[in-house]
Amino acid sequence: MTDTKTEDRIEDRLSFQAEVTKLLDIVVHSLYSDRRIFLRELISNASDACDKLRYEALTTPALREGAEDFRITLRLDKDAGTIEIADNGIGMNRAELIDNLGTIARSGTEEFVKHLKDADKQGEARLIGQFGVGFYSSFMVAEQVQVFTRRAGETQGWHWESDGGGAFSIGEAEVTAPGTRIVLHLREDAKEFLEDWRLKSTVKTYSDHIEIPVVLLGKDDEGKDTEETLNEASALWTRPRSEITEEQYTEFYHHVSHAFDTPWHTVHFKAEGAIEYTGLLFVPSQKPFDLFQPERKTHIKLYVNRVFITDDAPEVLPSYLRFVRGIVDSSDLPLNVSREMLQNNPVLRKIQGGLVKRLLGDLKKRAENADEYATFWETFGAVLKEGIYEDFERRSDILELTRFRSSTTDGWVSLADYVSRMKTGQEEIYYITGDDAETLKRSPQLEGFRAKGVEVLLLTDPVDEFWINAVPDYQGKALKSAASSAAGLDAVADPESKDETPEETAPTDQIEALAKALQETLGDAVKEVRSSTRLKESPVCLVSEDGGMSLHLERMLKQAGQDMGHKPGRIMEINPSHPLIKGMAAKVASGGGDLSDLGMLLLDQALIVEGEAPADPVAFARRLSTVMTGAV
Q1: Where are the annotated segments for A (predicted)?
Q2: Is the dihedral angle over the CA atoms 443, 448, 450, 453 positive or is it negative?
Q3: What DSSP state is assigned to residue 323?
Q4: Which residues carry a binding-site annotation for ATP?
């Protein structure tokens, strides 16, 4: 670090955090497809700063002195080639400048929450700048960026400056009032933004929904100061739906989520009655980056009479709807509501019930268009299914919205579709869990089902292992694992195969003797060896005990490093009509040679089909070589 002097200011020269240096070029050139986005991002940040000050001033009114009316101002200087964006919000001190502008993906908003946690006010204020990359879009149009700022409640101002390279300078500055002023020195190819019409159209397109006025400052022909408000400057959710365009909805979605996709669905409504509130919610078309983070946080902004309170209130929406973005504004909550009050507030619980009912109802309507709904389901189905075991009250509604891959048809099917196609004599809904639908379709465990044309649902999301046990039946039909030892397939009628000649099988006594010999060979590796009626092509397969842990769940837990304490029972089923099994059975009956190598190879084969490695790969290779040598 070295000291430099610029315009009589002593400044520190600091290096960007390593991640900034590595990623800044990506942010500037790849993250944003339209350079106009820089203005949206800076205006959104300014709006956040005003919201922060408005919130802190609820408990410390003196912070808002001189900022009775919040506003964001823009100023063009064609001679100097600069654009200024200024706000009278919370401002920053030296440490915040370094943390917020010297570190990528770390915003002042996020640090603001940490401060509240330290003050035992966890979750009371979190805003939209959680990604911390919007500021860097400035360098798409600017060859140099200057920031002048002073934090509310402090007297010292600061100056930050960088050309977007590997370093920035920071030092003391004379700043007359709290807030932040950003000066962009435009590149030659970005001078178009110095034109009034260009700036006005950009603000109208991307920031018209901002509640805080965005004002263009200038001078008239006589040199007098002029002001022109460029945006509607009213909360978008308070306007009638008929007055809001799809483009405005989309830009508001971008504002509240800092996403760049187009929302798949928009919900805008006002609930009236005992409890009044307005909801403006969006279902994205792409997965948010934090969708599967362990915290499973929802991202709905809560307002009280248009004053921002928090976006970290899990009581607003359940976690299985955490992909939804938007705002809820209620007049029935106190303006100074605390985090603890939110957690136990009956009004908020009723609001949540209303929001969930509205969202699930809208999804049901959208599900009538199978192709459109498939897009949603492929993106968020795995998350929505969490509600099946978390939300008992709405379980049946979520089940109706749930879609599955099937062993007998392409595309997505519902449980209602499945029940309508059940075979004569079939009393259960069959499913199988695994990692990949195409692999499951070819599973030996489904050979008997394929032969009888019985449909099996293919469950490939990790959450499927958990919700399935919370649903005993659907329309009176029990859900049954096709990979269990008691699948009940024999009771299903098979009219298409009545005239077919039954496959020749080994004598029952020989199969029983072979099963006993294999059991002795395999020992504790399997709980039982027995004859199978499900197998048609494969010699063996592994199944789980009826009602026991599935083989897929066992594998998931093992991959997660979780010790199950005991090994779940695995049952090896053998196919009495397969040539290999018939040959082995005959050999056992005649008192033939040692079958231990063949027995272990059968187990290893069954494990491989299940997606697991042989217990002893070296021994597996040796046995395989021995058998192949005997064959040639």
Answers
A1: 1-339
A2: negative
A3: T
A4: 41, 45, 87, 92, 100, 107-108, 130-135, 180, 339
Residue 286, judged by CB atoms within 10 A of its CB (0-12, 13-18, 19+), counts as middle
For residues 143 and 42, what is the distance between their CA atoms, to the nearest angstrom? 16
User: Average pLDDT of 375-389?
Assistant: 96
Q: What are the binding residues?
A: 41, 45, 87, 92, 100, 107-108, 130-135, 180, 339
* Other beta carbons less than 10 A from residue 285's beta carbon: 15
Q: Count Cβ atoms below 10 Å from residue 427 Cβ, excluding itself.
A: 13
The answer to which of 93-97, 230-234, 398-402, 548-552 has the lowest mean pLDDT is: 548-552
**Amino acid present at 135:** F
Burial of 471 (0-12, 13-18, 19+ CB in 10 A): middle
Provide the CATH number for the domain around residue 247: 3.30.230.80
Rounded CA gap, 62 and 57, in Å?
7
Render 52-85 in DSSP notation, one character per residue: HHHHHTTT-GGGGTT-SS--EEEEEETTTTEEEE
User: Does residue 407 lie in a domain region?
Assistant: no
Same domain, 467 and 515: no
Each residue's pLDDT tens digit, 511-563: 999 999 999 999 888 889 999 888 999 999 998 887 677 777 777 777 666 65
Q: What CATH number corresponds to the domain at position 574?
A: 1.20.120.790
